[in-house]
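Task card 7
Instruction: Convert sequence to structure tokens.
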Amino acid sequence: MLTQTSIVILVALVGSGLLLGLLWQKRLRAARRHRLDDALKAILTAELENRVLGPEGLAGFLGIRFDKALRLIEQLYASELVRWGSDGLELTPTGRKTAIRVLRAHRLTERFLVDEARMAIDRVHSVADRAEHAMTDAQLAELNEQLGHPDWDPHGDPIPNAQGTVAHVDRYPLDGWPLERQAIVTHVEDEPPDALRRVLAKGLRPGATLKIVSRSGDNLTVEIASETVELPVALARQVHVRACDADVTASPIARLSLTELERGHCARIVQLDEACRGFTRRRLLDLGITPGALVKVEMVNAGGSARVYKIRDTLIALRSEQAGHIIIQKEPIADSVEVTAQ
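Output:
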């Protein structure tokens, strides 16, 4: 005979089973929606790169078997999210709206994680993959505003606006770039992660200035940040560059980062590099670090990890990481010149 306590326990167990069943069904529905989102994002990404995906391309992009890609396309087609074009898959208006939201969420999240959460660039892709599915249009608009309407994610991929329009810049694979011609890194592939980490370890990240000084077999010798590194051609294909601005390449006066300025010397600020975004960029601008301003190194801490600079009659302390974003032009003036408000 069941006691009252036994009945309570049985009811609780049945209730838990039902609850677990409902939760499992919810997870399955979420996983199915995420797969559809990923497929739509892949199709839009290819479109922005002037490519069209078919079943094989979609399978390769998502890292799934061909038969799974076909079933996924069937689901997208049945949901009226894609249609077959003359060359491959095309987004319907409904599919495009979803794809834009997911891609914006992914790239804005990556930008936030690097700029505000200070997460390493090689770790943000997987985190953004998980976060991109839950964000609403209103949340994206708020995040975009907070980040200062960035055009590029930390890897150099364009961030679409709410209408799906993206900024454009001509970019070229590093392995095909001419010798002895300066270039700026605009993009590094975020997958596979191991290749990304190896590229970053060489100092190659969006905004970095470099030039190829020689080629030998399957290796390039690249000069970057006053150092020379050896780079396999296979890794160089993970990196895209563009030409430096004409005034930078033609200038007879060396342009360096603020970290390279010696104590007691003065320089004029040229710009903040392209990798400096979000809160960090706003803070530096608020401190008066703007193009044309004079800056002088006043003090350096024992380990060299931070310095005190004088700018516009004010002393400010910056970490080396922050100062590395500030591009300067050394001034041919005496060290005794006062750095006053301009």
